[in-house]
Every structure is written in C-alpha cells, then in structure tokens.
Amino acid sequence: MNMHASDMSAMGWAKRGEQPRIAIIGAGMSGIAAVVKLRQAGYTDITVYEKASKVGGTWRENQYPGLSCDVPSRWYSFSFALNPDWSHRFSYGPEIQAYMEKTAKDFGVTDIVQFNTAVTDLTYEAPRWRLTTDKGDVEYFDVAISATGVLHKPSFPNIDGLDSFAGDKFHTARWDHSVKLEGRKVGIIGTGSTSAQIVGAITHKVGTMNVFQRTPQWMIPLPQKEYSSAWKWLLRKIPALQRMTYRFYSTTMAKNFGAATTGDQKKLADIQDACTKHLNEAVADPELRAKLTPSYQAACKRLIFCSDFYPAISRDNANLITEGIERIEPNGIRTVDGKLHELDVLILATGFDAGAFILPTKVTGENGQDLGETWDGSPRAHRAVAVPGFPNFWLLEGPTGPVGNLSLISISEHQVDYIISMLNKMRDAGLDAVCPRQDAYAAYNKAMAERVPQTVWASGGCDSWYFDKSGTPNLYPFPPQQYLDDMHRPDFAEFRLIEDVAEDRELQGAA
Ligand code: N01
Predict the structure, then answer these.
(1) Which residues contact 50 (CB under 8 A, 6 or more apart)?
(2) Ligand 1 center to residue 378 CA distance, Å?
(3) Which of the four CATH numbers 3.20.20.120, 3.50.50.60, 3.40.50.2000, 3.40.190.10 does domain 5-70+108-153+355-445+490-510 have?
C-alpha cells in the first residue's frame, strides 16, 4: 500500500521502521553524554543545537578567576571517557573545558552540532516536534531532548542604581577579561560558591577587596591535591584503576554527602562539625568570625568546598561588609548605615535563575499546553525527565533531579540510559509516542513533597536557590543512589504508551 506523505508524517518512527530523528538542545556536558550514549545504543540520527560557538556549557560560560569544580574530577568525568591526566583532585575550569571539547571531538559530537543557533520554539505536532531556531529554520524531529543545564541564566540583583555604576561591572558568568584588577578597589556582591572561589583567587592582587555579604555561608575545606606524573602514568597503564577511582568517589560522595542532605543526622552533624572547625581554625579575628557564622544548618544551602576564602577575607586589604545595600551609585555601593564604599570594579556574584531549565525557549505540548505556564515558577517533572502533556520530550538535569554536591555528569548519563529504555520500548512495541501519565506524575511528586521536609534543604533554616516559587526546594529528596537505580528500572506503567496518535487524540477528546 502506498502511503501519502501526510500519513507518513503522522506515523511515528517506530512504526515506519526507521531511526528516530533526535534533536538535542545544548552541547554542554549532558548534551555530549546524550549523543555518545544514544549512539552507543544504536540511535544515530541526531542533531545538536547550541546557542554558543563552542561545546562545554557552564564550563564555557564561566571563566572567572579561581573557577574549579568542587566535585572530584575522577567522578566529574564521562564514564565512557575517563581521564588519567586530570592535574588535580578538583580540577580547574579551563582544564575541564578542554576535557569537554576533547571528549566532544574524540566522540564525533562536535561534527553534529549546529553552533550559534538557539532553539526558540518547540511545538508538538503529534507525534513529532516542530523545532524553530533563531535563524528562522524549521525542522521536524521525532524526539526532543533538553540538555540546557540548570544554571545558565544569570540572575542580576534588583538593587536601586545598578545601572548607574560608572566603573567596570559584570556578572561572574560574563567575566570581562579586559578589566584590570591589580591594585584596584573591587567589590563583589554575594558569597556563594562562585564568590568564594573568586575572592580566594584575586584578593591578594587587588587594591581593596570589598565583599558584600547578605547571608554568611558554611564552608568545608577543599581537600585539593595535585596528581603526580607517576600516578597519571599508572592510571594510563591500568585503566581498571581509573574505573576503581571513579567508583570510589561516586560511592563516597553519595553515601556521605547524599545521605547527609537527605536525612542522615549523624552524617549531617559530621559536616556541621567540619565546617565549624574550619571557620574556627581559619579565621583568627573573633569579630570577623562572628560575621561569617551562619545561623542555619551546614549543607542547607549548597555546601561550599573552599579553603581559600577564609585566608583571603582575613587579609588586611579585604573588608567583609554585612550592612545591607541601600543603593548603587556611580562611585560605589552605599550601605544602609549611610557609608559609601568606593569601587572601581563591581562583580555581581548573585547566582542564576535556577527555575529556567529550557525556558525561555517556548515549548508547546499537547492541546497548546505551554511549558512555562505549566511550571509557573515551580518546575516539576516526572522522575526529573518528562512532563505530562509533552510526549516524546525529555529533560536532562530537569526539575527535581538530584543536584546537591554531586557529579551532574553521572546523573545525566543515568537519565540518558532511562531515555534509551523508553526509545527501545517505543521501537519494540511500535509506539508513536510516550508521555508520563498525569496520575503517575502526581503520585511521584506527592511522594517527593512528603519527603522534602526531612531534607536539610527544607529543615535547615536557610533560603537558597534550591527553593522555587512554591517555597519548596526543587531537588530529589531521597538518597541519590535510589534515583540512579530507578533510572535503570523504568516502570512503563507510569507512561501513556501511545500506539496511534490519531486514535489517542480521539480517546482523549472523548474522555
Ligand atoms: O550563586 P548563589 P553562585 N543583594 O546563588 C547573593 C554552582 N557552582 O553563583 O545567600 C545581596 O549560590 C546571595 O545572598 P543570599 C553551585 O551549584 C558550582 O555562587 O541569597 N546579595 C548569595 O550570597 C552553586 O550553588 C561550582 O542572601 C545578593 C549570592 O548572591 C551555584 O553554582 C562553583 C542579592 C548568590 O549565590 C550558584 O553559585 C561555583 C542581592 N540582591 C558555582 N542577590 C562548582 O565548583 C543575590 N545575592 C561545581
């Protein structure tokens, strides 16, 4: 029987007996992981869209001094591209970016990326996705995967006079390398992980370092270590050793840190003790120590691993300013006590919009359902990877996934495995589309909401970027290993397995 083009397009790839056309949005670490693992599973018709001119995501965008990863590099690695050459236990940003670029090149990912191309619109036309780019190109895909990262949209503080500052001013994720820091009066707003790394790296060379702190942060020492050439040689000779060290760090971090944040009070107390000891030992001045002491539980905000901040803020040329900011003026920052802190350079270490995910790309699912409106500032997903009403659409590092101080590369890889299981199911059963059932999604999110109060993120007495508009930390509240294990035992009953989209539409219309 001859099939008309329109019939063909309405029929899913699995029924056509073809490869699915897969679009991946974002060529950061989760996009790279997705391409490699999908190909290994036999899915080869893939296009990656990247708004920038290079792969690397967060490691491409963040170029501030002192940038390093506070997750051990042996674990913050692709499982399929372990790297014997990491220079340090916690590697620095440029080295991680080089690793991203090398892995993408070695595995042929770079070749399939459409660079400098932002996806502006994704619209579901059952059973496919119509994808529109900022160049006006339109393409159709059977599967759309969002790999846009969690923290990609800089957050600018809503402070009076921000635009009036006459000196040099930039957000940490948009570092201006042309600005000289040596000998100048530098101010930084914020004391999160980013600020801690910057302050630790630049205070010795600036004239004055003024740190504007709204809330103090707990910091645990970073057990940094440079790897010897002999150790690198050994790892190169014995690849099994690399796998062992990967497993060692993944188990240690999940069992200790993952457990502490999700309810293990003994492990949480150990983290608190380590942070308190660090502060007491590293900051001699009692007045400064008091200003740096948080009033909430350690690990409530994302725990900062940093050994450089306390020595830097204790220097004679550093000031910790805890009075609130009244406004920003052309010459500096005026605090509520009326004092003007004169500045040549203003650095905004004020974090990111953690609720954006794939937004502001407009994503429209079944029946015109808009993803941004569906989320309304409180993004949720089924098992962090899928949303009811958005068939054949997947999120990597989506809402309610495990984040914390874990390896996001590892988490993305597990999520890709889950998506592969769903594609295999579609292929084997000849399905047009799959989509999480509303009741399964509701039950899943209800269980998470019930569990959240047991986490330190909710009970630790702090505010943080983990909280969404609903006032709930948007993270996986059970031990992270449970999530990773679940990614390998998908329950297909949680999904609408749609054999025929036309029939499904009629059924839904009738319901
Ligand atoms: O951002 P943040 P970040 N007036 O949101 C303050 C990852 N990361 O870029 O605490 C005054 O943590 C705000 O104050 P408060 C990591 O996941 C990873 O530092 O809200 N202050 C806070 O101090 C991390 O958690 C690595 O009271 C204002 C700061 O700005 C995430 O990125 C390294 C303000 C924002 O802190 C974000 O970290 C670095 C205002 N109006 C970062 N608005 C690794 O090593 C905000 N603040 C993997």
Answers:
(1) 26, 27, 31, 113, 114, 115, 116, 117
(2) 19
(3) 3.50.50.60
